[in-house]
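User: Okay, second chain of the day. Same drill as before: sequence in, structure tokens out.
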Amino acid sequence: MKNITILILSLFPLFAFAEEESPAVKAEAPKAAPKSYYGKIGQRLAKMLPRYHVLQQPLDDQISQRAWTNLVTYYDYDHSVFLKSDLEKLANHEFTIDDELGAGDVSFGYEVYELYRERLNERIDFATNLLAAANWDFTSNETYRIKRKDAPWPETKEEAEEYWVRRLKNEVLAQTLARVLDEEEKAAKGNVTKDESISGEILKGEIAAVNGSQTQEGEDEYGDDPKLTPEENLIKKYRQYYHVLCEPDEEAILQNYLSSVTRAYDPHSDYMSPASKEDFDMDMNLSLCGVGAVLGMDDGALKIAEIMPGGPMDKDGRIQEGDKIIGVKQENGELEDIMWQPTKKSIRKIRGPKGTRVTLQIIPRSDPSGATVKMIELVRDEIKLEDQAATGRVERVTIGDTERKLGYVYLPSFYGSMDKNPGEEGYRSCADDVAKLVAQFNAQDVEGLVLDLRSDGGGSLREAVMLSALFVPNGPVVQIRDTRSVSPLSIPRGNPVAFKKPMVVLIDRASASASEIVAGHLRDTGRAIVLGDTQSHGKGTVQTVLGMGPEKYGSVKITTARFYRIDGRSTQVKGVASDIRLPSLLDSLDLGEDKLTYALPFTKIRKADFVKCWNLDSFIPELQERSAKRLAENERYQKHISHVDGMKAVGEREFVPLEREARLEMMRQDRELAESDSDSENSNSSDEKKSRRRRNQLKSDDIVLDEAFDILSDLVELNGGNTLQIPQIQWYNAILGL
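Assistant: Same drill. Structure tokens below.
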């Protein structure tokens, strides 16, 4: 069996989620069934998990029960589609999944899918009929339960429909009142400058992300297309969601099923179909081959949401943002209709090898009737996903009469080429990219560095070690404990340190895995001070990607080891604690490894042999005192803290009112809260917009980052201009006990 082995450290797991698509009319779809070789994939997975997973746990009845629960709740996470009797029907597989996989039988995954599709069809028929005819009463003191993952499944169809009445009533009311509040805001603001409009849209989208709403072009944070009534919006939404289930993707169903089994071991192990593995590789390499567009679904077509600068579509110039793609023709193939096809399948048809040609059938945005259709041929090229690359700048910070030049690096992920070596075309390394930024800082004689790892979910273990080596002369970076032994990953003797001045590291609750390795290492060696949320995410596990044989069999990402800080503590569950707490919105939300199902527990091992390379941590008490005094007098920061506390209360909300005036008042207060502190927009969970603001180098309005610069400036002062000394001989003497 040919194995492809990749060590990765990442927070965000791979899982095949259903895409929302919509037909004008629903048709009876063929039943999904596994392909002939899917059973062999199941058998291989059943053998690999007990052998390679760090727990070394047999695939037994306990794992089977967990997998059964994972699968059922994956499809029906809010307990609104299945009936209790459906679960009783499926329960005869609760303790047999292990045996079935061993025998090469993956049919249960398709059985659950088909039953879910049948029930969802019933729910959506009920919903669309109700929305088309309902006369809503928003005067009674009803409430709607917005958190249902622990709610019991409905006993009967009537009980399920009763829930859906309130669900739809809640969504109609939310969209209706959102429009009322939009009009109030327009009337209050009057004329708004262009810059203010841009800032307002950023904030609006950010707050929507925190509240779990999806915003698309032409829609507000409730998914409201103003051209349609709230009821019409919802009918469109639910028909879109149903359509993907009418065009079953056998590969995606298999991935959902087998990932429910891998996640019975821990939340970061996954089965990856060939298509998902391709997506994973592109994320790690920050590149793909295609036409250079960000695409989304709109009325069955692929709508061009954004054209990437420098890509084939941008250079060609004939296609505009807002145009729709309805057909795709390969170089020597026939035109394929992609209307109402699953988004991922259509996008893969547009992607392809560099230098090949693809023809797109386009409906221009200027003709919403769809009567005008163009055929435009493009030559595919490599697209660099620079949105996720390291960025940096020099910041001038003034405290009192002292101005300092400080460096700033934002690293959104630990990316790195898995199949290329340095010097080869297409090779990428986040550590190399940061090293180039640091070289620029050294040339400009900056006095300190802020390394921003907020919302960095991790990535390559190799890159984490290489990044630490830019700042620490030698010694162990992290300890890896697999099924056989504990091994340190170390910086070799003679390492040329790239930056020797004081540092602070910014983290939040979404900083995970490789981020935690680097933050923990720089803190434990006395090389940097950690600022940000109470603690980082708490992912202390290592995943290995293994091939399963022929390419069509896909790959499996298995947790094969745990990592530990050099002081012997795992970052698992407990993460890395901040020396000085500067909370973001994430610190108030229900995030963290400890919130994930079947997360591995915190453990400790013996500390590694190391000595601290600096003593920057000795300045922490004085820095805490200065920061606390400064922030107590900072009105912007106090508003930010009030905002964080307010969002925490919103996040803990279990029920919302369905009475119009009570809901309007609640939504008005929520908006006031969201808009009361524009500084908080950089503290929430919208990574893409946050990094975009930084890349564009807009004016500094990130209160947490501002204080990080001030703390770093204080650190430079307290340190008295000293730089890192490289104690190579002393370190080796300590190791040898001399």
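Residues 287-384 form a domain with the Pdz3 Domain fold (CATH 2.30.42.10).

User: Thanks, on to the next one.
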